[in-house]
Design brief:
Length: 349
């Protein structure tokens, strides 16, 4: 009898531990949508798709087309191109499908309805909450440019909702207790919310980086083959973009995600697409970028050495000019390329 009681106590202890673990795991789950607790606390956003329409419904089960405001209507729709949506709550219906209770603009003012959550995001839970260490900018969709109107500020709590390649979908606070669901560059989220950069030792140590101080040979496939998109398009060296593209390929050993247009567009192309981190401090292997009067005309070069006095050695090529050369410039590049504005550095390693 004592043995039976002892076994029962062990079982109860194990079950108790399991219940505690389950409760703890459940409590640890973070979802941004829990912040949307009332009609006055909503998140502004747009549909994932920028074309077509999204059908609104009168009910959570998404079976009756129309709106919760006016009832059934076979003509109700959300214009994905332009309609800004307010999300009031998110839930799961009897069919185990996630829905969002939203409002959207019409000629009669904003109306409320239910839509599939999948029209707005691909994830309903486990949204990591991080505090931002600085300001960074966002866009309304993953494939649109960053906007000065949408930004996360220092000390904002940022919820990571979903990811898509180099873009992250986040939710962050705005004015009057509201939130915004938008897209940011992965590199900006890593920098300001995780305090993490994508650079390696080669970016800061001259001893672990192999600088190029002489022209590449014609047998070097990074510069003179179909690997180099500028060369294969008839715009090979002498050309600053053909050289910088080939040098980036040579440094990383893989096809670079750099702009394939004129040099003046390189910096903002990367900034808007979030392929690499960027900034104003020189690092080894970084692409230095200039633009002339804000146009696509510009120049790009590669940082080969960082000197103790703050100057940097760059390697470069010039359109229809010098095939290859190196030169030493100030890190802020104020003494180089008169009439050109220095944009910054793209950190490819």
């Amino acid at each position: 009898m004592k043995k039976a009681i002892s076994i029962l106590m062990v079982i109860l202890t194990v079950l108790s531990s399991m219940m505690l673990f389950t409760a703890s795991a459940s409590a640890a789950k973070v979802t941004a949508f829990n912040k949307l607790a009332s009609s006055s606390t909503y998140a502004k956003t747009y549909t994932i798709s920028s074309s077509g329409t999204t059908i609104p419904y009168t009910n959570k089960n998404l079976t009756s087309r129309g709106t919760a405001t006016y009832g059934k209507s076979s003509s109700s729709y959300i214009d994905n191109r332009s309609d800004e949506i307010y999300v009031y709550s998110v839930g799961q219906n009897s069919k185990k499908v996630y829905y969002a209770y939203v409002s959207y603009p019409t000629s009669n003012g904003r109306v409320k309805a239910y839509i599939p959550l999948s029209a707005l995001t691909s994830n309903n839970g486990n949204h990591a909450a991080k505090k931002s260490s600085g300001r960074f900018y966002c866009s309304i969709r993953s494939n649109t440019a960053l906007s000065g109107s949408y930004y996360v500020d220092k000390n904002d709590t940022v919820y990571l909702i979903a990811t898509k390649e180099s873009k992250y979908q986040i939710m962050y606070p705005t004015s009057n207790g509201a939130y915004r669901i938008a897209w940011c560059n992965k590199s900006d989220y890593n920098k300001y919310c995780l305090n993490k950069t994508t650079t390696t030792q080669a970016a800061t140590s001259n001893t672990s980086y192999s600088p190029r101080t002489s022209a590449p040979s014609k047998s070097n496939g990074y510069y003179y083959s179909s690997k180099n998109i500028f060369y294969s398009s008839g715009y090979g060296m002498p050309n600053c973009t053909a050289y910088a593209y080939g040098r980036a390929y040579e440094i990383t050993g893989k096809k670079p995600n750099l702009c394939t247009n004129s040099a003046g567009a390189w910096y903002n192309y990367n900034k808007n697409n979030g392929y690499y981190s960027y900034g104003s401090t020189p690092r080894l292997g970084a692409i230095a970028c200039w633009s002339k009067n804000g146009t696509s005309t510009g120049h790009v070069a590669v940082v080969e050495k960082i000197n103790s006095n703050g100057t940097v050695l760059i390697s470069e090529s010039h359109w229809r000019g010098t095939n290859f050369n190196t030169r030493t410039i100030n890190s802020n590049s104020s003494n180089y390329l008169t009439g050109y504005r220095f944009m910054g550095y793209i950190y490819i390693i």
